[in-house]
Amino acid sequence: KKFEKTYGEDYANPDYKGKTITLIVNVTEVKERQLPEVDDEFAQDVKEEYHTVEDMKNAIKANLQKEVDEMVDNAKKDAIIEKLNESVNFAVPASMVDFELESSWRDYVRQTGLSEDQILNYFKQSGMTKESFTEGWREPATKNLKNQLILEAIQKKENFEVDEAALEEELKKNIKEDTDESTKEYYRNVLRDNMQYAKVFPFLIENNNL
I need a labelling partner for 177 at 20 to 30 A (CA). Which of 61, 76, 100, 195 fits? Predict the structure, then answer.
């Protein structure tokens, strides 16, 4: 089969930009997918807990609804924190930004699988420095830190109540029974702080007019 393909003026490859070429395709094999019949037996093969097609459909629908709800929640969170970021003016300490950049740099080095010296040597040959390479990270890092500080301030101001029984249950999952009391108290405070912080966004979503 012969057909023509036209590439736009913004096509990345300059050899094809704005050009029309002729393509010749030879079909060497044709396959057809044989789909199984969607019945109760098929549903049971998909997952053990599915006994009928209806079970499978309901589960798929529930999962899709959960994904949609999470997308909506995330969109609300992004809109709220963006509005808060615009409304609250304060300078994020430079030392915090520098620490965040250094942490991101260490993550980057680890992900490359190279040593820091190897990367810096490559930068030197390319006319770059560590500072020039990470400078583009500064603005988003500053914004993220500002968001975090705002959320932590809301957490502190509201001082959300924590279910003590749930806290103790979570503590048991994270430490050994023979852990000394001072260590337990440390982890108890960490968990309480995490549980309070987890209540910030639900509180913001409930109390906003976006």
Answer: 195
